[in-house]
Structure formats: C-alpha cells, structure tokens
C-alpha cells in the first residue's frame, strides 16, 4: 500500500508542480499578502478533490478520463469539458516545450535544441508505457521537492523570517477557489487514466492526503518568503531568482535544472492525458502516439501563446469553479441520486 500510494502521490504532485508553480510566479499571482487561510483552504479543497477523482477512477477501472468526467459533471456537460481538457492539456504542453527551449537558451544552447531534448526525453519516457512516467516521477520529484524546500528554508533562516507573522492578515482567503480550480482539469485527465492500476482505497487516501499536505506546506513557506521580497518581484520574471539573488551562482544553476524538471513533469502529465484519450480511437503503442502528438506541437512553439493563454485561462478558471463545486459536493449529491434510484 505504501509503495503504491507513494507512486500515485508523486504523480499528483508532478501534475500540479509545473514551472509556473516551482518558479513562484503562479503562487504570487494568486496568493501574496493575506493568504495564509487561502493556502489552508486550498490544501483541504485539493485533497478532497483528489480523493473524489481517484475514487471514481478506481471504481470505474478507467484507462482515460471520460468515464470520470461523466460522473463528475454529467453526460451533457462532459462533452464540453472533454474538449476543454484536451485543449488545456495540448496548449499547456506546447508552452512547456517552449519553456524547455527558453531554458536551453539560458544555458547558451539554441532554442530548438531545448525543444528537441524534451521531445526525445518524453518519447523515451513513454516507450515503457505509463510505467516510465511513474518511475521517473519517483526519482525526479523527491529531488525537486527537496531542492525547493532547502532553498526556501535556508532563505527563511537567513532572513530570520517568522512563518506565522502574517497569519492575522486573511483578506485573500477567496483565492483558494480559483487556484484549486485551475489545477483540477489536468488532475482529472491524469488520474482518470490510472484507475485500472489502483489496487485499494488505502492507496487513494495516502496519495491524496500526502500530496495535499506537501503542496500546502510548500505553498505556505514559499508564499511567506515571497511576501518578504514583494517590492523586488517586479524586477524578476521568475520570483524564485529573487530569493536566490544573494546565493552562489552554482545554486542558481542547480535550481534552473530543477525548473526544467518541473517543466518536464508537467509536459509528461499533459501528454499522458492526451495520448490515453487518443488511444481510445487509435490503438497504437503509446510512444508512437506521443511522438506524433509532439511533432504536431513543435511548429506551434514559436507562435505567441501568451495571448492564447491570456484568453483561455480566465475561461478555464470560471468553468473549472463549477467542476470544483461538483467535486466538493460530490458525496452529498451522489447520495441523493442513489436515494432517488
């Protein structure tokens, strides 16, 4: 139970911790001052949502997300959200490929080298079916989480920060809803694809509570650190580098590599959601579907996706609030539907 639960826990964390989260940009956009309670609420909402999604996936023994989606939003809306999830995963993965190219440029490598490297890595990863992703997550994520926590705790100690000094400021508690909602769609896509591999409910509870506590704790410490340097964040595209500015250059290099791994795990989770959906129509080996999908994305990496994301993400945020509400109230309305039957 422990080993399997750990495997699913890392899958959940890997899906959620993308470059936006690891860099601090996503956290600062949603949280910031007065957000202690918001992060606690996020931890509760996130854990509850994961439990519901994984439980449905486990009961349905699903190999892709549509059966889970139908249970959550109903037959009619499932078609709309099916399209939304696919577009969301596709555009997010394109942005991750582009991010890998940009990371390569930071190390004085050509833009296309960075893209080629992540494409080849993803194809190799899925050559062993889904087991490759689960295995690599168990290697990468402990390093990523440990490195991130190490930097944040070191900064907290060096700056003599009090973790609960801003606890009395709770004006931004409502941010918990859109932040959790934004992370729901990829989780439905990824967790909906592994239902046939989950063996017990104990695994589900371990994975969901573990991932919720870890993400909640890191989010709180990270946000508390960013509050201390709020005035400097306008000068940095990546807030994490504002924290690292007084540390040795080797640490900046190390964290840049970890940021690439965050890009990689997000891209891998997105690709998993896409190809398991395509596989229901085209019965080909997973790595062939991965390669074909990624090849369609490469030309799009040079298009200005900031405008596309600026349009899509607010729409996702609003529409996802309905999904979040359905997930949080699932035990109630599911029991009501059973009574009607």
From TrEMBL:
It comes from the Bacteria. The chain crosses the membrane at residues 34-56, 77-97, 109-127, 139-157, 173-192, 204-222, 249-274, 286-305, 311-333. Keywords: Membrane, Transmembrane, Transmembrane helix. This is GerAB/ArcD/ProY family transporter. It comes from Ornithinibacillus salinisoli.
């Amino acid at each position: 139970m422990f080993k399997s639960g750990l495997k699913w826990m890392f899958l959940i964390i890997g899906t959620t911790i993308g470059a936006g989260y690891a860099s601090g940009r996503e956290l600062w956009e949603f949280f910031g001052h007065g957000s202690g309670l918001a992060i606690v609420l996020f931890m509760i909402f996130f854990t509850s949502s994961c439990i519901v999604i994984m439980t449905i996936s486990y009961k349905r023994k699903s190999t892709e997300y549509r059966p889970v989606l139908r249970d959550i939003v109903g037959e009619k809306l499932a078609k709309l959200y099916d399209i939304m999830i696919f577009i969301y995963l596709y555009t997010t993965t394109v942005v991750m490929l582009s991010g890998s190219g940009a990371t390569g440029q930071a190390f004085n490598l050509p833009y296309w080298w960075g893209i080629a490297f992540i494409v080849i890595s993803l194809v190799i990863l899925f050559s062993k079916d889904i087991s490759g992703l689960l295995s690599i997550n168990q290697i990468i994520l402990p390093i990523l989480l440990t490195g991130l926590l190490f930097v944040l705790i070191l900064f907290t100690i060096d700056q003599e920060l009090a973790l609960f000094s801003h606890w009395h400021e709770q004006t931004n508690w409502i941010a918990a809803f859109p932040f959790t909602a934004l992370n729901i769609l990829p989780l439905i896509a990824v967790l909906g694809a592994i239902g046939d591999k989950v063996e017990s409910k104990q695994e589900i509870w371990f994975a969901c509570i573990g991932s919720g506590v870890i993400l909640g704790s890191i989010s709180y410490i990270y946000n508390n650190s960013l509050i201390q340097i709020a005035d400097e964040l306008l000068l940095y595209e990546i807030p994490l580098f504002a924290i690292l500015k007084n540390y040795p250059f080797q640490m900046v290099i190390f964290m840049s590599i970890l940021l690439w791994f965050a890009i990689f795990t997000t891209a891998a989770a997105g690709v998993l959601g896409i190809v398991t959906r395509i596989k229901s129509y085209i019965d080909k080996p997973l790595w062939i579907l991965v390669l074909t999908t990624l090849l369609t994305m490469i030309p799009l990496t040079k298009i200005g996706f900031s405008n596309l994301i600026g349009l899509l993400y607010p729409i996702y945020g609003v529409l996802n609030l309905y999904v979040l509400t359905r997930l949080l109230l699932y035990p109630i309305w599911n029991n009501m539907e059973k009574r009607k039957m």
